[in-house]
Design a protein that fits this description.
single chain, six-stranded mixed sheet, alpha+beta
């Protein structure tokens, strides 16, 4: 079996979701990112083995990581999408880029990685909500990063 074809309107809406996610990560905007994640989101990440709520994801993964990097963005040319036959559930996987800061607090380094998001929506045309995410650094990328950027208000 092969993945189902993805309609242009679905591709655009999923790309827009990834663009918004990256914008919110780059802005260290915990308040607004909650609006695009399901309350009971399931996630894996560099800081957590597994969490099963948006609140735990924010406290244990997002808050320890997002302030420590700059320039977070997705390379949409790498975005791969799988979508359900009813077009209410999709999976997107893409490479991201960001900048880290070494412990000397002066040396910046490339901090690439990859992310997968499972998205759901109530009806076609409705906003997507992330029900599962998995974000990880590309193997061999230095960790941790030492920026200490302020949260968006």
């Amino acid at each position: 079996m092969k993945r189902l074809p993805v309609l242009d309107e679905d591709r655009r809406s999923i790309e827009a979701w990834f663009v918004e996610w990256a914008r919110l990560v780059a802005a260290v905007d915990f308040k607004r990112v909650r609006e695009i994640f399901a309350e009971d989101a399931i996630a894996f990440g560099s800081k957590v083995e597994m969490v099963t709520s948006r609140e735990a994801l924010e406290q244990q993964q997002w808050r320890p990581v997002w302030p420590t990097m700059e320039d977070y963005r997705y390379d949409l040319s790498t975005l791969e999408i799988a979508i359900s036959p009813d077009r209410l559930m999709a999976m997107g996987a893409a490479v991201f880029h960001s900048t880290g800061l070494l412990a000397d607090k002066q040396t910046r380094f490339d901090r690439p990685g990859r992310a997968t998001a499972t998205l759901m929506r109530e009806k076609i045309g409705a906003p997507w909500f992330c029900t599962h995410s998995h974000v990880s650094l590309k193997p061999g990328t230095p960790t941790p990063s030492h920026f200490n950027r302020a949260e968006a208000v």
